[in-house]
Amino acid sequence: MSTKLLLLLPGDGIGPEVIGEVRRVIDALRAQGLKLDTETAPFGGASIDQFGVPITDEAVAAAKAADAVLMGAVGGPQWAKVARDKRPEAGLLRLRQEMEVFANLRPAICFDDLADASPLKRDLIAGLDILIVRELTGGVYFGQPRGIETLPDGQRRGVDTQVYTSSEIRRVARVAFETARKRRGVVHSAEKSNVMESGLLWKEEVTALHAAEYADVKLEHILADNCAMQLVKAPKQFDVIVTDNLFGDILSDAAAMLTGSIGLLPSAALGEAGKPGLYEPVHGSAPDIAGKGVANPLAAILSFEMALRLSLGRADLADKVRAAVVAALAAGVRTPDLGGKATTREMGDAVVKALA
Ligand code: IPM
Ligand code: MG
User: Fold this and answer.
1) What would the DSSP string read from start to end of 63-101?
2) In this structure, which CATH number among 3.40.190.10, 3.30.300.350, 3.40.718.10, 3.30.2130.10 belongs to the domain 129-258?
C-alpha cells in the first residue's frame, strides 16, 4: 500500500496539546505497518500571528493535496478583536468551503465505562450510538446577501441568508442514507419545513431521493426543534440524523453532551469520493485549560481513527485505535473533563500502551 499524507493543523488553545498525542499514536502505528507521512501548517490564531490571516493559500493548497487533514482547534480571546473576515473561525469556514467537505459526520457514542458521566440517566444513554450528518458548506453560513447595513433612519439591519439548492440537499442526504444502510437503517431528516422555504425544499428533496434510491432505509421527517427535545428525552430512538448547517451545529452540540464529555467526540467532514476528508475533534480550543496539559486527547485520537477508516484506507488500524481507547477508559484513566486527574500525556500513554 502506498504511503499516505496527513496534514496536521494543530491550531490554537488545546489544539497543539491534543494533536501532540495523535502524533504519538501515529508513531505507535508506524511500528505496526502504517505508512503515513505528516506535514504541519499553522492555522487559526497561530496563523494570524505569523501571517496575518487565519489560513494561508499555501495551507489551503496543502490541505487539498493531502489524503486527509486533521485539525486541533481554532480561536481564543487573543483574537476576539481581529477583523471578522480574518478571525480564526473564518479560516475554518474557508477551509471547509475550499475542501468542499459538504457532509459532516458527528457521532455521539456512549462508551460503556462512561455511562455515568452523562447528565441524563444511565438507562437513557447506555449503548447510545447516533450519528449526526450536518450539511457543512452551504445554508446560512455562506448564503448571500449577508452583512450589517445602516438604514436611512439610522437603524442598523443585519442580514443572513439561508439558501439551499436541490443538489446541495441531495448530496448530503445521500451520505446519510448510505451511512444508515451500514448501521441500523433509519434516517431522521430535521428541518423547519413548517416555517422555512428552504426547509420545505429540504423535505421534498430528501423525500424524492429516498423514494427513488433508498426505499430500504426508513426515513422519518422531524422538525428541528422537536429533534432537539427528542435528543434529550429519548436519544436512543435515533440512528442517523441529517440536517442543515445551522441546525446541525446546534443539534450536534446537544448530542455531544449526551455522552457526558465533549472531550470525547470526533468528527469527519467528507466531500466527493476520493477527495481528502477534514477531521476535527468537536471540542473547541478551550482557552481556560490551554497549556495546562489536562485536555482530553481522546476526541482528537478518535478523529484520527475516523481518518484511518474513511480517508486513509486502514479500517484495520482504525479498529485497533478504537479498541485502545476503550481499553484506556476501561483501565480507569480519566482526564478532568471525565472527573479524573489524568493529564493529556497520561491519557495518551494509556492509548499508546494499549496499542502495543
Ligand atoms: C463547529 C463550530 C464552528 C461552526 C465554529 C467554530 C465556526 O461551532 O464546528 O461546530 O459553527 O461550525
Ligand atoms: Mg458548533
Assistant:
1) HHHSSEEEEEE---GGGTTS-GGGSHHHHHHHHHHHHT-
2) 3.40.718.10
Q: Do 67 and 311 meet the contact criterion of CB atoms below 8 Å apart? A: yes
For residue 24, pLDDT over 90 is answered with yes
CA distances from 99 to 6, 144, 153 (A): 14, 20, 42
Q: Judge whether 37 counts as a catalytic residue.
A: no
Q: Please tell me whether the overall predicted TM-score, pTM, comes out greater than 0.85 for this model.
A: yes
**What percent of the chain clears pLDDT 90, i.e. is strictly above it?**
92
3-state SS class at 62: helix
If phi > 0 it is left, if psi is from -120 to 50 it is alpha, else beta; for residue 274 that is left
In sequence order, which residues have a C-beta less than 8 Å from that of residue 219 and are 6 or more positions away? 187, 189, 206, 207, 210
Place of cell 476520493: 274
Residue 255 Cα to chain centre, angstroms? 12
Cell 482547534, residue?
73
Quote the pLDDT of residue 116. 85
* For the chain, domain boundaries: 1-120+265-356, 129-258
Q: Which atom of ligand 1 is nearest to the CA of 280?
A: 9
Question: 129-258: same fold as 1-120+265-356?
Answer: yes
Q: How far is the CA of 75 from the centre of ligand 1 (A)?
A: 10
Q: What residue's CA is closest to ligand 1, atom 8?
A: 249
* Angstrom distance (rounded) from CA 318 to CA 28: 13
The average pLDDT across 28-37 equals 96
Assigned architecture for domain 1-120+265-356: 3-Layer(aba) Sandwich (3.40)
Which residue has its alpha carbon closest to ligand 1 atom 4?
Answer: 249
Mean pLDDT (the chain, rounded): 96
